[in-house]
Amino acid sequence: MALPFRTLTRSLTGFGRTSLRQAAVLALAFGVAEPAAVGQASSLDRAIVTATSPLDGPKTSALKDFVTRWAKDLSGSDDPGEVTAARNALTEPARDPSATPIFRRNYAQAVLAELKPVIEGKDLRRAVNALQVVRFLRSPEAVDVIVERISPSAESDPNKRLAAASTLAAAVTDADLSPVQCDGISRDLVAAAKAEKDDQVLVQEIKVLAGISRRAGLPAASTEAALAGQVKVFTGLADSVAASPKADARMASVARALVMLRNQWLDLPRPLATKIGPSLGRPIGMVLDTADRHWETARSDAETQSAYEIAVATSETLLRLVDRTMRPAAYPAPKPGAKDDEARVLASSWTGNMKDAFSAEVKRWMGVIGAAPYAAK
């Protein structure tokens, strides 16, 4: 079912321009589907989709004819409705819960042969629609095609990189990937992030790595590698915003990344949290220090101030969670009925425009993360 643009936008709201641009890019793949043309069946024969033995000649031909027919509309039609109908038709068999491994392999090969050139092409609308189809193939080869479009060295269009990264974030949740393949994606994303200048793409890369780290049955080493990759990408993003002499709109992306990291931290096993904690403390501290330096200019407009407010509040919460893991002795059990007012020092002083109190608390935290166990001994 096609999602209205407004519904799609609302599903991504909370961080201003970041969400609106992502919604606008992904909305290219959503429209009103037209009925299939007369003589064009929108579904494959069930005997092909549910095949449990190698496809014979007629079935292979029928599958290829189906893919070719709809891929032609997706890649060549000037009618948005026909492009949407083609995307829906090509996605339907891949999402069929009855589809067998034999069918999936054959179908993925046929679809990739037709749509890989579309994804690599210059037409963003067609590429985004093709990415939506490939996302549901779930094969390692399909995931590779998406990953390739995230690298700035391979893809010059930042909007397509954003669409690819957003698509990959969904694809890694259920793709048929081995731990080795997950490790490869983590490495590729970290490498791509080093050359990525678009903050919104970086946020989606962090989301992809988060999805990999949550995959069930993944070895501890692979989960740790994905989490370490997240921290590296986040650190690069935080550092780039810190380098700005005044308030930076990219703080909205920093805030989104912080929210993801905070939510993940709550579910991390303690041994893994202890390994990740030291490297996560520094970039969180950097966000707080940046907010302190950008104090005046961050209040120049409501949207920027809101982004900084979210980043400050989330940084404070996450840093205390991390520090409780790294330095449990520094947090004695509170007395019955006592309020944990310390947890709100940064958030309350930011919203209350109390610069001296904020700066003092940032200085205290910078001292904490500048010493063991965060800093090298």
Q: State the helix count.
A: 17
What average pLDDT do the residues reach? Answer: 89
Topology, number of strands: 0
Structural class: mainly alpha
Unreliable residue stretches: 1-14, 31-41
What share of residues is helical?
55-70%
Tertiary shape: elongated
Cα-atom radius of gyration: 24 Å
Please trace the helix and strand order, writing H or E for each element.
Answer: HHHHHHHHHHHHHHHHH
Q: Span between N and C termini?
A: 57 Å
Strand content: under 5%
What summary fits the major beta sheet?
none
**What oligomeric state best describes the polypeptide chains here?**
single chain
Which helices and strands appear, and what pairs or packs with what?
Elements: H1 5-10, H2 17-26, H3 46-49, H4 57-76, H5 80-95, H6 101-120, H7 124-135, H8 140-148, H9 158-171, H10 179-195, H11 199-213, H12 220-242, H13 251-265, H14 270-293, H15 302-326, H16 345-351, H17 355-369
Helix pairs in contact: 4-5, 4-6, 5-7, 6-7, 6-8, 7-9, 9-11, 10-11, 10-12, 11-12, 11-13, 12-13, 12-14, 13-15, 14-15, 14-17, 15-16, 16-17
